[in-house]
Design goal:
It is built from 28 helices and no strands. With 510 residues, it is mainly α. Helix 16 packs antiparallel against helix 17.
């Protein structure tokens, strides 16, 4: 097989969310402004700077070097340009780079607004974790602990589903009279994430009672709660209220939400009607709006509309972003247009200035879904020539394919190679994949295979009692013993339950 010939060079998605769940006060404000005004025209200077930043790798300190070099070349950079670069980097998930830009600004004593501080807290939580975000918030002076920074911390808790901390902070925000629609939006988003959509409507009633403005996002999440409850009439009641009483809050995201509800309910004609209205509400070219349209049409298996909107997206902007290519390629894979997928991928390959392996992975996933392994391997080897990896997620795609087809040896090779490369990206295999391996080795009484898997998982620091349970059961099924397992289980810090203890007695007896 071709993949593993490249091990010396490299050791090797779910579609977009149907509903726009905004993160912080900054993001909600930014999106709202983009919906009602034309997109900002970047100057040539701003384009050059953003292009340099967006093409950087993931090496610490490289952003500061790039900014310093840019200034040494005689360029002058305004604060607003840096803020726009941060916003764009965040938009495309380059959180480390965005934070390094803000760190660079801080070292040069550039004053941060309350909004800037909220953005920085959000980035710290994404890059360094919630603990450092909490420290950042605590170290702010009382004057800078505003509704913006409180909101960013609340958003962090809600995204991580830290319910107790989120609800406690919500009460603190209320005590300071910092409560806004965004505060409620964060809590409602938390409940949606916890699969408790029934808790959303009472919060809406509380907002109305307290005369807190219902934003576009508030209405959207209200509709989503009814959709998740299977109450399509509830979704339509909310939509009618928006169009009747809050027309100013109605925009393309409103229609994307009701379209999503109709798609989920299998109401194809209503969904297509909502998508037409969505498109009519796009006042200025919006990548995000086109992304939603493409994704929805692929969900409806409408290949013609996927191609039409993809072409419209491409013609509406000077360049087609890597994110846009990913959305288009995912959609074409979903509607089973592999020729179209290949055409768009080859176009991206020939034009991209930064080889984003996530784009290639979409195509690899599409080919594997259609059992075209050779085509997937060719794309992988093309990626190896243009990127340094680590290609862990690529390996995972192949591993899952081989597991689904009961090709355990090949899947193990993928897992082993991924483990070799995992240190650079803090990757851990999904528990479902581990279970498939464990159950196979137990069924086949394959002690050697189970032990090999154990060593891989130990290297990744993800050995638990479940792994030991299957390992012991494999030994028992094979009628073999292993005296050192008691010491190993103790060394790995596993709590020995009565069930594990009984199995250990059988396996460790000589």
């Amino acid at each position: 097989m071709m993949i593993f010939r490249c091990r010396s060079l490299v050791s090797f998605t779910r579609t977009s969310k149907k509903l726009r769940l905004l993160s912080t006060a900054v993001e909600e404000a930014n999106i709202s402004s983009e919906l009602v005004s034309p997109p900002h025209k970047k100057s040539a200077n701003e384009k050059r700077l953003y292009r340099r930043l967006s093409e950087l790798g993931a090496t610490d300190g490289i952003v500061a070097q790039t900014l310093n070099q840019y200034i040494r070349e005689g360029n002058f950079v305004k604060k607003i340009v840096l803020e726009r670069c941060v916003r764009e980097l965040r938009r495309y998930g380059k959180y480390q780079h965005a934070l390094e830009v803000m760190d660079w600004m801080d070292k040069r004593d550039i004053n941060f607004s309350n909004t800037d501080l909220a953005v920085r807290l959000d980035l710290i939580s994404k890059v360094h974790g919630v603990s450092e975000a909490e420290d950042f918030f605590k170290n702010l002076s009382p004057q800078l602990q505003t509704r913006n920074t409180y909101g960013a911390l609340l958003n962090t808790y809600c995204k991580l589903q830290m319910t107790d901390k989120a609800l406690a902070l919500f009460k603190e925000i209320e005590s300071k009279n910092f409560t806004t629609s965004l505060t409620f939006n964060n809590i409602m988003t938390l409940y949606i994430g916890l699969d408790q959509p029934e808790k959303v409507p009472p919060l809406i009633e509380e907002m109305k009672k307290r005369k807190i403005h219902l934003s576009t996002f508030t209405y959207n999440i209200w509709m989503q709660s009814f959709s998740l409850l299977g109450d399509i009439e509830g979704v339509e009641r909310v939509f009618e209220e928006i169009t009747r009483d809050a027309k100013e809050t109605c925009n393309w995201t409103t229609y994307s939400n009701i379209a999503g509800a109709y798609v989920k309910a299998g109401l194809v004609e209503k969904a297509e009607s909502a998508l037409k209205m969505l498109e009519s509400e796009i006042k200025y070219p919006s990548r995000e709006a086109y992304h939603f349209l493409i994704t929805f049409y692929s969900s409806l298996n409408n290949q013609e509309q996927v191609h039409r909107v993809s072409s419209l997206l491409k013609s509406s902007f000077e360049t087609t972003s890597n994110m846009s290519y990913r959305i288009i390629l995912q959609a074409l894979s979903k509607v089973n247009d592999l020729e179209g997928m290949k055409k768009w991928f080859e176009e991206w390959e020939s034009n991209c200035t930064y080889f984003d392996t996530r784009v290639a992975n979409v195509v690899i996933s599409g080919y594997l879904r259609h059992n075209k392994v050779e085509e997937a391997e060719l794309v992988f080897h093309g990626s190896v020539k243009r990127s340094s990896g680590p290609f862990v997620q690529t390996l995972v795609l192949f591993m899952k394919h081989y597991l689904a087809n009961q090709q355990i040896d090949l899947a193990m090779k993928c897992l082993e190679t991924a483990a070799e490369r995992a240190e650079s990206c803090n990757w851990y295999p999904h528990s479902f994949s581990i279970d498939v391996f464990l159950e196979h080795f137990e069924k086949e009484k394959d002690v050697a295979g189970a032990e090999k898997l154990y060593k891989i998982l130990q290297k990744l620091n993800c050995v638990d009692d479940k792994v030991y349970s299957h390992l012991l059961q494999t030994y028992i099924a094979a009628g073999k013993t292993q005296p050192d397992l008691s010491q190993r289980i103790e060394r790995d810090g596993i709590v020995v339950t009565p069930e594990l203890g009984n199995m250990l007695k059988k396996v460790c007896s000589v």
